[in-house]
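Weekly modeling sync, notes
Attendees: S.R. (lead), two postdocs, one rotation student

Agenda item 3: backlog of single-chain predictions. S.R. asked that every request posted to the team notebook include the full sequence so nobody has to chase files. The rotation student volunteered to paste the first one in as an example of the format we agreed on. Action items at the bottom.

Example entry:
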Amino acid sequence: MKRRVFKIMLSLLVILSGITVTTSMTATPVIARTVGDYTYTDNSDGTVTITNYGGSERNLTIPEELDGKTVSAIGYAAFAECRSLESVVVPETVTRLQDYAFSQCTSLSSIELPESIVSLGRGIFKNCILLEDVNIPASLTTVAQEMFAGCTSLSEITIPQSIRSIGDSAFSGCSGLTQITLPDNVTTIGSASFRSCVNLEQIELSDRITTIGNNAFAECYELGSITLPQTLRQIGQSAFLNCIGLQEITLPESITNLGYSVFSGCSSLSEVNLPANLGAIPDSAFSACSSLQHIELPESITSVGASAFAACIALSDIELPESVTTIGSGIFNDCDSLVSVELPEDLEMVPSEAFRYCDNLKKVIVPTGVSEVGNNAFADCPSLETVFLPSTIARDKFGSTVFYNSPNVVLYVVNGSGAYSYAVNFRLNYVILSDEITMEADEITMQVGENREITVMRRSYAVVNNASLTWTSTDDKVASVENGVITAKSGGDAVITAELPDGAQAKVTVHVDDRELPITAIELSETELEMDVNTRKGLKATIVPSNTTDNKILSWESEDPTIAIVSATGNVTAKGPGTTTITVRAENGVSASCEVTVNSPITSVRLSQTQMTLEAGTSQQLRTMIEPVNTTDDTTLTWMSTVPSVATVDQEGNVTAVSEGYAIIRVKTVNGISTTCRVEVVETQEVPITGVSLDQESMTLTEGESGTLNATIIPGDTTDDRTLTWSSDAPEVAVVNEGEITAIAPGTATITVTTSNGKSDSCIVTVEPREIEIISVSLDHSELTMKAGRETTLNATINPVDTTMSKELSWSTSNAEVATVEDGVVRAVAEGDAVISVTTVNGKRAECVVHVFEVSLDALNDTIARAEQLDDEESYTASSYAAFTQALEEARATAADEEALQADVDAAQQKLESAIAGLIVRADSATMERLAELAAAGSELEGSYSEEEFAEMKAAIETAETLLEKDAAEVSEAEATAAISALEEAGNGLKVLDAQKALAEAITDAQEILSGDVSIYEPAGVEALRNAVSAAQAVLDSGTEDIETLNDAADSVRQAISELKVQEPEAADKSFLQLFYDAVKGTGSEGYTAESYEAFAAALEEAAAVLDDDEAVQEDVDAAAEALIRAYSELEREAQTDYSGLDFEIEYAKSMLENEGEYYESDMDAVREVLAEAEALREEASGQDEVDQMVKAMRELRLSIRKRPQ
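Predicted structure, as returned to the notebook:
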């Protein structure tokens, strides 16, 4: 029982703890009072602060007074989340706006701030997404923190000259801003001031700027350039992070400090100018600047930070100044375009990850100042071939994974150095710098068109000046060289030689590959991603085929950077809610895509008030501000009160004070984020009504109109019954209903409002009679067409017909030379257009467009005169002449018709013109006789040709016969002439055909001779015949129809045939066979395989037989020579043993025995024993297997031996 009582008391203590603590802190509570839609609290100076607005006005003017007290401040979040507000005017009495005063008013488009304002809190207009028109008072010196953050519709704003600093996040997320000019007095731009102004293209900075804060312009995607003043001393970290449109930047000489990641992710940045006195490049300063190909670093720089140029995939040329002594880890990580790097002489260390993932890095020269190389410094460099390592790096100063997954690397080391031991122990390929000069590789592979500069190193680890060497190539057509730069020209191999003046040489074999293996596909590790805002995920792109000869550097882009951005290496960062597409693309256009969906979870929730004091029985709404405003989460909220007996809250945030005490109101989002408001409830105080006031003393209405009177009860927080009674002393003139007045009839009425305790106020209403105005006037025609000299009447109608105004009308014309008007009667005067207008006494207007035309006979009469001169029936075909005479008669009739319109005249003239043009000249008798003669002559030839050959002539004959059968009066001169031409052309075609046949026959006869045994003829005659046939065939193939040319070609062939002469046969030429036989007949079988020598001996014997045969023809001689040459070239040597590896191990063992004092005695005994066996094996004719086993044993022994400690 005691335990249960204790639990109950403990619960009561928890509930009442707020009362106990707060009472001890606050002696007199500040009670929030409500007047209409406003809640306020009293200030110590007699003014009030508006703490809440509960209205639903769209266009609001905040009052200067409440309950007769001056409004001097707008409190914390007082108007926040008022979604109905579209425009607001703040009165001149207000001097202070507290935090979030109008934040998240998502319909607010304009607000007018008075010059009286001297203080602004943070986030005043935060997330007012439709705000377009706002002024910054000249009384301010700072644009407050987060003042316009998230105002996405704000496209322009004027900042007064009084402003000296831009607060943190002042314009953050203003995606509608495209340009902005900062006043001359601004010296400081705060952190994130313009962050995520994604459409900001231009900003003019003042000449007094000294500081640009962290993230100031981060994610300003459209910012292409910015001019930094000479006064600027400091740029904060990530100041221009992910400004993907920024193309160039020049840092002034005044800069002494740069923040890390200052230009990271500026993927379009291609030109950077650094100040001469800059001391360091900070971490990640230019990382992921994927368009940066070259950057010049000043000699003042001593250190370059970690990842400073990481993922600069286009960076192909960078020279670290000799002043640099320190570089950070990952400095050139993922720099895919770097091919070779020469590090500064005083560099102390190559740090971890320094060149990791540099896919095209081929060569690195590590200077003698370096004493340590970190883990993975050159890891995952698949193209890395050459690394020169000095003797200054001790064995234990190499990381264990320096060259991890770089399979093609060869280390060039000094004999006995730490680098040499590292290479041996980790079984890496290495070359000892033992010769006078050594090239960077024994052989290299290049693509056609590629250039590569070769490094030559002295034995003393000094790079040779390429200009001091003599360079040669064994095949300049494959690869040429100039001052050490090799240019690959065509497929094949060439040896490049570099020679010192003293004769010392070094060589490299160049294999030039001319194959083309284009990229055919790109495969992405993911095709769909779902992410939350501000999270990152990596995409991996795989090129197909992997051995492509195309440029392997890929470009990445996001369809909508406001949703997600992507780095040059495929790292995706979620920026805002929505769906976008990430595309990776090769230079040849092959691409792959990934759809990215970004969610925006709720990150915070705030209340419009964090504490309030209410009288028992009153209510007030708490509004919430959820961030981000574009969250994709469910925005349903859960409300609760810790002490419902003191104050309750509904699910709309309406807090009701129940009884005296304290309670905490808590609101929670669906993802568990919550915030609270402390509520104090005090006893209700009675406040009687002292008066009532109408907003108008008098009002004038027109009969039938309405008007509104607004009554204000004084004081606004009265506890009396607020019911009002309205009355009219002349209801026949005007009536009233809850302040809404309706005018009934002309006269005067007094409208009175009375409170529940008898307080009243009145308004005198005057009602004036209604006038019926003319609304419009109309005409019965809007357009007329009239002939000059005629009249017509226009009728006008006034609307309404019962107008009380004068019905007098005024008529006018726009052009009296075309048409006139009088009282509506229109007279056409001359050709043209005119506008006839009618106007009422109150200016209403109607118009009619009048088109006046005239008739001209000049063109018709001219055409008739020309036609009468052509009136000769015998000269034209009968049908064309009949149509001509009919058109002429109609034209004469129209010209005589006084009623004819211009269209009739024009039609008659055009018809007559067509008839004249249609007159057809008739063929004369001589032409017809010639046609008949040619047709008869052509018919006689038909039997001499095939049907196909005679087709053209037959068609021409048929056309001629058709004309000859036609009525002579209907045959035109053109028809007859065309038929004659067709017959003549067909006749010529037959003559050409005859010549072509003759030429083809001559060619056929000649080819029969040439395809036979032409050896019986003299060569000159045969050659002449071939030439004649070739020329003739060319003539025939040309399709020429020149008969003379065809006949000449046929005659040439016939003549060449007739001039062929038979010749005597020649003996076979054995001179070459005899010469080669004598050269190889003494070849013995020693050193050749039995099988290859037997084949050679048989070929030698066959050659001897042919040489002895007097009857052998040339074909037999040539065959024997070919067989002997082939057998000799295919003689195969017997296999030989390779002792080079054994010789190396023998010499190395001898050198160890010469310095045996440096090693353990037992190890040297083992060396002596194996050396004796090796020398014995060397003297014997041993097989390759035995030699290889001995080499392996000696190498394993050598690698197991360690020197004595000194």
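Discussion: group reviewed the output briefly. The radius of gyration is 54 Å.
Action items: rotation student to repeat for the remaining queue; S.R. to check formatting next week.
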